[in-house]
Fold these 3 entries.
Entry 1:
Amino acid sequence: MESTADILEKLSAYGELIVSGLLIMLGGMVAILLLYRLVAALIKPGTLFSRIMKVVFGAIYALILVITVMLAAERLGYDVEGLAGIAILLVIVGAIVVFFLIPFLPRLPYVVGDMVQLRGVMGSVEAITAYQTVVRTFDGQTVYLPTALVMAGAINNFTQVPQRRVELTLTVNASDDLGAAKTQLLTLMSSESAVLAEPPPAVFVTGIEDGRATLFAFCWVANADWFATRDALWIAAAEAFSTSDGFTLAAPQVSVKTESST
């Protein structure tokens, strides 16, 4: 059997080769990862271009590994001239096959880092295994959900869409100036910097009952701006409706009936 000294001597002899191979592989992967994130920020998820991008960058990752292995084999004295072309061809063919298979491959509707709502639990996905999904809620709790149970229920993924709708439902007195109230809500939403111009904000009267009218307002914002924008709009609406002379928020009404006894 080889002694420890012999093993260390062989490792030191190939030390430069190991280090250079690792540097090439890691450097290439980091560069591809940064480029992938840059391109991903410009492409909407779920589109054909998104699928092409994933396949292309996956193929580049595979090519980096193949090239690194070929360089190492060549440094060790192996003849890789014929194998290099075959390996690169296999990577390209594999990428083409994967491109057409992706729509048919099973996949989870969420990944680590997505903001989701699973079985009534809302938070960020921290880990996924075959047995459980770990969610970190916004108040700092760690919730462990059986993955099989999660897959059997409704799943809301708020990360996969680039835009999200902010909704406000307010109740005013039916005798108020409803047109002015609608205009005020539109002005509030349009003046908020995070609100998108397309689709445009809108306000509708959805019903009148017991002397009160319900106003339903909505606008669209970038996914990351949803919480902050909703908070800002609720505060602005409360201030605007409390200081206006033409319309105010309707207070809850309680009807009391009395019966006279004879």
Note: The beta strands are 115-118, 121-128, 132-137, 142-146, 155-157, 163-173, 202-209, 212-222.
Entry 2:
Amino acid sequence: MAGRNRDIENELIATAHAVADAARAAILPWFRRADLSAANKAAEGFDPVTQADRAAEEAMRTVLARRRPQDAILGEEFGRSDGSSGLTWVLDPIDGTRGFLSGTPTWGVLIAVSDESGPFLGVIDQPYTQERFVGGPGLAEWTGPHGGAPMTTRTTAGLSDAVLFTTFPEVGTPDEGAAFQRVAEQVKLVRYGMDCYAYALLAAGQIDLVIEAGLQAYDIQAPIAVIEAAGGVVTDWQGGPAHGGGRALAAANPSVHAAALDLLRSTV
């Protein structure tokens, strides 16, 4: 939020919380319902969307239309709406719809505010557990029913002590999967299937690495802001910006990031 006065910063943070609150209220009535249905958005494979996804994004957009009508919006379900302020709200109403359909509490609501240089404010919200992870310049904290605290990423120096997460065991293409395995073979522990909750755990100092491929901008912009605010590093697999989507390497600190990046860079 560099270059913006404190009143604007506070307004953006308050609006982000209001957007997350609206998404929670829209989503929770649908979670673990036997009559929840899902349409498939993918031409191949399974990319589900539910009533909850659409209802949540509609609720989020309603809050933004009232509080920040000058800002642009990029949302997974309803695309892009133009704005005049130079700011864009990047929304994923349910990141991890497959987990949502399965009843696991590893999905989440992703909210980012981005300018021409990328995301600078992010929220990862888990409505069912009521945990919220918020990050921006000078702000890195989580809150929940069991308390809350400032967030600081881990200081793990090498891969041999690192904990690595990804969502899908295959990661992406066969070449991308092979690159992931090169890192996985060096770390202490590998876990799968956590969707955006893995990024929240990295920011909160619980794990060291998240490696994914095939992402969209709305999948990664909120995690970038949250993790960087907590002291972590997020890039693509070549060490460049990741906020456009594609391949992402999120790490707790520069040391473990560099070690993982060396093993990923050779991927075509």
Note: The first helix runs from residue 6 to 27.
Entry 3:
Amino acid sequence: MAALHLTLSVFVLLLAVSLNEGMRGVGPKRCCFSFNETPVAKSRVAGYVKTSQRCSNPAILLKTVAGRQLCVRPSAPWVKSLISYLDDKLVPGQTSNL
């Protein structure tokens, strides 16, 4: 009887953990709702990543050499120039260092 209770308890615990893990991956990890409009110097940017297509606002997330993250609009001319610069700087086969 005790073995049955233990087995049932372990099953319920595993079910709860798996349901919790499944809920965590439902939405995008990071979306931007406000944007930095001031151009950032190329020397201050360590890398970038595009936010998920599931976010309501398309955005680029810049990572500075100081470790900060800034949301910027991908349509801004200075952002397009910065992205081109960063892409040209990458070694073939390497990805952004975010």
Note: The helical segments are 2-24, 77-89.
